[in-house]
Design brief:
Blueprint: H1 13-18, H2 22-28, E1 38-42, E2 46-47, H3 59-72, E3 78-83, E4 86-91, H4 93-102, E5 106-111, H5 116-129, H6 135-149, H7 153-160, H8 164-172, H9 178-185, H10 191-197, H11 203-216, H12 220-231, H13 244-257, E6 261-265, E7 270-274
């Protein structure tokens, strides 16, 4: 191996230039394709961005990419912008973290002078092109573009080449209660489940619906049916909060019958309600 080549090498510069996606290159400008803008930067002079739309980077993904980088080098440059104490990542945080794990001293980078708004747009576009963002990460990023930079839904849709309806539907996920948002973020329910639950009229109904989806493993179509039924006023009553005995009996019956069981207590008599699907 030629010792004069940088540690990340292994791919010709022309191939590295092609690594930039067409959409990302268009946003950065045609000059991003010029070889002179791809330079080797010391990895310890680069820091992560406070504008990164991704909430977290999975350690397993970083470890897998680090092994690939050890074998073949960094095939696509990161994008950075100059800051007072070095460079701030704009796009490619997972590659940068993986390069650190792989022990690289330098990484290929495209250096661009970008505003906060442009940096967030570039980071969004790169992640969306790879479908790397979770639904709520997209929603929070869209909201930041609107709240911090005054960009309308129509403008966001045009810049990201999506329909305005798609942007609006994703933003609606932020109307879910925190508990339901956490279930979506953790993958316990899907985006389809979450969209269906938005059809319920109150935050409590959405929380109850999400618990039902998780408990029974409902499909999206079954969740939509449940929402329609509850919206017609057929929401199961929960046992009185002050009667733990009724709750315990209802839970035992639910486990034994593998369906929702509700005990409705009155002054003189009560009802045991079994839920089923035709």
């Amino acid at each position: 191996m030629d010792e004069t080549r940088p540690p990340w090498s292994g791919t010709p510069a022309s191939a590295r230039r092609r690594g930039l996606g067409r959409g990302l290159g268009a946003l950065l400008g045609r000059e991003a394709y010029d070889e002179g803008l791809i330079r080797d930067l010391p990895i310890n002079e680069i820091r992560p961005s406070r504008l990164q739309p991704r909430g977290e980077v999975a350690s397993a993904d970083v470890a897998e990419l680090a092994q690939s980088i050890s074998d073949r080098g960094v095939l696509q440059p990161v994008v950075v912008r100059p800051v007072e104490d070095g460079y701030e990542l704009v796009a490619g945080e997972r590659r940068w973290r993986a390069a650190l794990v792989a022990g690289l001293q330098v990484v290929p980078a495209v250096v661009r002078h970008l505003t906060d708004q442009e940096s967030l747009e570039v980071a969004l576009l790169e992640n969306l092109q790879r479908e790397d963002l979770r639904p709520l990460e997209k929603a929070r990023a869209y909201r930041r573009l609107h709240d911090e930079f005054g960009i309308t839904q129509e403008q966001i849709a045009a810049r990201l080449r999506k329909s305005q309806a798609a942007i609006a539907n994703t933003l609606r996920l932020l109307q879910l209660p925190d508990e339901v948002q956490e279930s979506l973020d953790r993958g316990r329910i899907s985006e389809g489940h979450a969209r269906a639950l938005l059809g319920l009229s109150t935050p409590q109904a959405m929380r109850d619906g999400a618990r039902e989806v998780e408990r029974r493993g409902l499909s999206v179509r079954q969740t939509e049916a449940l929402v329609r039924r509850w919206s017609r006023g057929r929401i199961p009553r929960r046992p009185a909060a002050g009667d733990p005995n009724l709750r315990a009996v209802a839970e035992e019956l639910s486990l034994g019958l593998q369906t929702k069981v509700t005990i409705q207590a009155g002054r003189r008599r009560g009802q045991i309600v079994l839920e089923f699907y035709s």
